[in-house]
Amino acid sequence: MTNTIVSSGQTSSGLTLNSGDFLTVLAGGTANATDVNSGTDNVFGTVSGTVIHAGQEFVSSGGRASGTVVSFGGAQILLAGGLTTGTVISGGFEGVSGGVASGTIISFGGMAVSSGGTASGATIGSGGVLQVFAGGAASATTISAGGLQYVFSGGIDAGGTILGQRQVWAGGVASGTQIGAGGIDYVYGAASNTTIGSGGSEIVQSGGTLSGAIVNGGFLEISSGAHASGGVAFTALGGTVRLDDSQHLDAGLIISGLTPTAGAIDFGDIGFTSGATSAAWTQAGTSGTLTLTSGALQASVTLFGSYLAANFKMQSDGNGGTLGECQEYCVREFRG
Known about the structure:
The chain is mainly β. It contains no helices and 43 strands. The strands form 2 sheets. The chain has a 40-stranded mixed β-sheet that branches.
């Protein structure tokens, strides 16, 4: 067992730590290319190119670690006041209990951000998992195909890109998300200002809330028991907004951008009955209300724009539901 101390002004290069060995890099000290087989690396100064196998690296206040590779059985722990840049997690684990982790790549393994910690610009690869706990924050995260992110109660995620899967649990908050092809976002907490691209999906589950979204060719589902407010806008690429409980929508929801070639509204809880399903339109200034009636069932949704009742024509979609279309504007309805 050895205990190596690198003091201010000193440099260590190529040191190997085995079981029971300790390396302490004090403020002003530098260690390069340390191989941590099963020992412990305590960083108060600056280290680069560390490879952690079955050992641990603790980056404390004032410590800086760059280019660390964390393999199976290894762990990097970032504490308050510390900074890591460009860590690569390859089967190991990074715990961010304070400080800032910048540009972490989770190729396979896990990363957890807890109170006081921030993960900025992380990339989650296939088989990688990023967890954001209460008091923790993530920003500009990229979730690649096969990657997974959890935002738990009290956690915050901002400006992320989803090509894999994210789950925002009750009490968690996500904002400014971009969802691309193959990406899916399950929201049990709160989401705002999401942009859903072609091939992407956001599902707002019961108890979840949505405040503003852009549907850019993708799919947005507001489940029964969920709440949606603010504007939901279709772009020229269209897409679908599915309303699983269209009979009990929040009054603050306004849908815009519905055109002949862009956008569809799926009334998931009202099936089509020939002779009984109809659409009506009530204009009120720059917006109005589309009311769908089928027997005793009725749903109303506010649309921004000018329409006429004759614009909305309901017919069977050939798939157990209803296709509503018109000469100028289209609405789709499917049996839930």
